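The record is passed on directly below:
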Amino acid sequence: MTKKRLQGCSVNHMMKSHKLASSNDNQANKGCEYSKMLRQSFKAKCLCALAMVFSIVLSSSAFLVTTSQLSYILLINIALLIHARFYKARLSPLLKLFAIQLVITVGLYVLFYGSDKVIEALIVVLRIMLVMLPSWWLASTQTSHHMSQVLCFILPSKWAFVITTSIKLLPYITQEVRDIYHIQCLRGARITPKQLINPLNWVELIRCVLFPLLIQLLSLSKHIAKSAQQRHFDRQRHHSHWPFI
């Protein structure tokens, strides 16, 4: 009997030690995975910081460089477009914005300066698009919580939240403009591309599309502010991010 008891105690002791060893192994594996995630997060934040600095410098260069040097900026932005396509970024809103900007700018130049200034108008449109492209690339390739974490190093948390939210709202704004435009066209507004050739219809475009968009954005900003207050965003000095790493 004593031998059986001793054998049973030894078996139980071995089972407990095996469970303890397995739990220690699991904790060690979790610790390794967590440290690996921390390294990946640090690398992602460093890349996000470099992308933000690069986009700011590139956007500023679009207005600072001479006309002969715009081709180099254009090639860099084409590379950014190709890179953003790997992240499944949508190019159609950008192309529509370019078309609208082209029509309005060239139309104004022709109206006020004549057809001799068309080349100059095209250069102005190109510069405007080269200013906007890096921001679109940044919003398409970087996550909002990484941008917020990077901005918190140089800005207060509230300003970082505002800037990150504004960048991430660009796709929503384009979708909202598209919806408002289609609704107003169905109502009979004279804002189709053929009708916008007439400058007299531009006032209707402002009244039917831009004013409702402004009201919608003001309402959206109010909802965002309320949601931030309900999460006690203004009561904490150090804010958490999701995901946490």
